[in-house]
Amino acid sequence: MKHLLVSGHRGCAGCCDAMATKFTLMGAGEDCIVVSPTGCLEVMTTPFPETSWNVPWIHSLFENAAAVASGIEAALKAMGKKGNTRIVAIGGDGATMDIGLQAISGAFERGHDFTYVCIDNEAYMNTGVQRSSGTPFNASTTTSPAGKVSFGNQRPKKNMPAIIAAHGSPYVATTSLAYGKDMIAKVKKATEIPGPTYIHCHSPCTTGWGFDTSKTVEVARMAVKTGLWPLFEMENGEITKVRKIGTPSPVEDYLKMQSRFKHLFSKEGGAEEIAKIQAIADKNIEHYGL
Amino acid sequence: MATKGKLEMEKMVVVEGSYAVAHAVKVCRPNVISAYPITPQTHIVEGLSQFIADGEIQNCEYINVESEFSALSALVGSSAVGARCYSATTSQGLELMHEVLFNVSGMRLPVVMTVVNRAVSAPINIWNDHQDAISQRDTGWIQLYAEDLQEAADMTAQAFKIAEDKGVLMPAMVCMDGFILSHVYEPVILLEQELTDEYLPAYEPLNTLDPKKPMSFGTLADPNYYTEFRYLQQKAMENALKKIEDAANEFYDVFGRYYGGLIDEYQTEDADIILMAMGSIVGTIKDTIDNLRQKGVKVGLLKVRSFRPFPAEAIKEAIKDAKVVVVLDKNISLGLNEGALFTETKSCLYNTKNRVPVVGYMIGHGGRDIRMSTIEKIISEAEEVMKTGIKLESQFTDVREEIL
Tens of pLDDT along B233-271? Predict the structure, then answer.
């Protein structure tokens, strides 16, 4: 199979962006146009005059990938060139859940035929691990650090899939880097369904989360096994498929793999905070029937 | 100097300025129109929406975006796949686009946008001045300013021709004064489809996003490469200087109408006093000149059509024999107390032998009415400058001292 994102890019060893993008392109196929907002993926794959992309690719700004994608779709339609070409936006959690949310809302409401893939590594990694609305409860980042009077980020993750589903998207799915086949299949399905579709990929970042570069997949898998990251599909607003996790692993097994949570194991009161995270997992398990 | 060619009366219809522009956009055969409503731009996009609803623009999608930021962002994508793209905005909308303006220019996407000039907030004000567009001076867009409805419409076709030229490939703003032009009805000739097709061929992009020939757009350029991107944008602007003249001349050949290229001149040949201005104020100045010429005042007008690229050589040539130059600006650089055209006109003369005194007036802020009596007063003050030199280099016009 032809590699649509080739090696030689500047990503870290174990980079989640590179993995998620490869899976995305394996699902979307060669006949696609990719839009990237500003972020690690853009920086590491396109140092002029080099590029890692074997599909047409465009980066405009941080907050407008969905708008750019909608313009591509409209233009191809207008000029009679849409054919079977898939339009795929691939953005990080900051570009998706924070600064780009308005443009995404507009593009989904307007019903453009495109797929938006969020590579959610739960902070602004390109600028040095700052907190985003994708940062989980009690994670330490450079702008929500754990300290003498803080356990880190004090808000839960924004529920982005629910926001997209509320726009009437025909297909919304969560996936994880630990489950490559799952992701490829979901992207393929998303790009085949007409209209605006959404894939949210949980993507551990070795640099930002603090784990060994060989452990990206293991960390991702543990998030799913604890129930902290449920894998599901929603079609026309209804959950149609959920990945069962059997006997859930305790959240400690996930938290202790990453230095962003290490204060929970050293600070006084940490056990109570871990219990709060366990409650989030328990709620997911109940809500999604994991 | 020809300002207009023959205006064939039998072809003229009385329409609103916004309709004339919307119609001009239609006959330019855009593929994508993306816009967000904002007063006083709305009638243009409403007109275009109706054309779409009536099936009068073939092969075109109109995107009802959720903000001006997305309006222009969508066109980044559209233009990159080879579409002819149009938007319209004003004031706050244009300021919201600021980041995207740089991006469109940097990627060399020849988008054309009407800017219906309006003051900027605060205080909020929906009436005309040029602060909105002038504030976007350095974003890498060609900026053309129209004097009247006919020119605003005709300039739209010219803007596509200039922007899409392979030696240019830069986006272009057609600036028209809010309400004064956008909402005024007067007789115009609507651009004929057949003539427009002859004047403006289909857009042929150099590079596009195409799965059969993958290319990367908007890549990262580090310090080894960034300078050259900027340099080439400047070269493109320099190429545009000639293309703007060519586009005006070719327009005359096809349509028989001409308004000047980079600049236009009115009664400047023997003028001691030359006024400089952009936009609809030009009409008021011409009428004032006509009155004063009858009284023997040797006054003329230099109309600037292209603010970017800045036509320094054309300006220098036009004012070479003047005894005083008066620049009227509907904008101000706060803290400098000068309008942009004034500052730049002075700047382009500095290293020349021409030591003509140049004075500036900031006028018409937030839609303040500009009367002929005000222009006459400015001209009489210019006569004083000729006699006694500059006392006040740059000043506000018509400040209501009693409410300060």
Answer: 999 999 999 999 999 999 999 999 999 999 999 999 999
Nearest CA in chain B to A37: B218
pLDDT tens-digit profile of A75-91?
999 999 999 999 999 99
- Whether the link from the prior residue into B40 is cis, omega within 30° of 0, is yes
Q: Is A105 on the interface with B (CB under 8 A)?
A: yes
Two structure tokens written together for B134: 């002038």
Say what percent of chain A tops pLDDT 70. 100
Q: Return the bridge partners of B300, or none.
A: B274
The answer, yes or no, to whether ipTM is higher than 0.95 is yes
B202 in contact with chain A, both atoms CB, cutoff 8 A: no
Record the pTM.
0.97
In order of B186, B242, B264, B339, the CA distances from B311 in angstroms are 30, 10, 11, 17
Could you give the CA distance from residue B120 to residue B331 in angstroms, rounded to a whole number?
Answer: 10
Q: Could you give the CA distance from residue A17 to residue A15 in angstroms, rounded to a whole number?
A: 6
Query: Across the A/B interface, how many CB contacts are shorter than 8 Å?
Result: 157
Q: Which amino acid is at B31?
A: N
Do B332 and B365 meet the contact criterion of CB atoms below 8 Å apart?
yes
Quick one: which of B217, B105, B74 has its CA closest to B171? B105
Q: How many alpha carbons lie under 13 Å from residue A115 in its C-beta half-sphere?
A: 29
- Work out the pLDDT band at A94, boundaries 50, 70, 90: very high
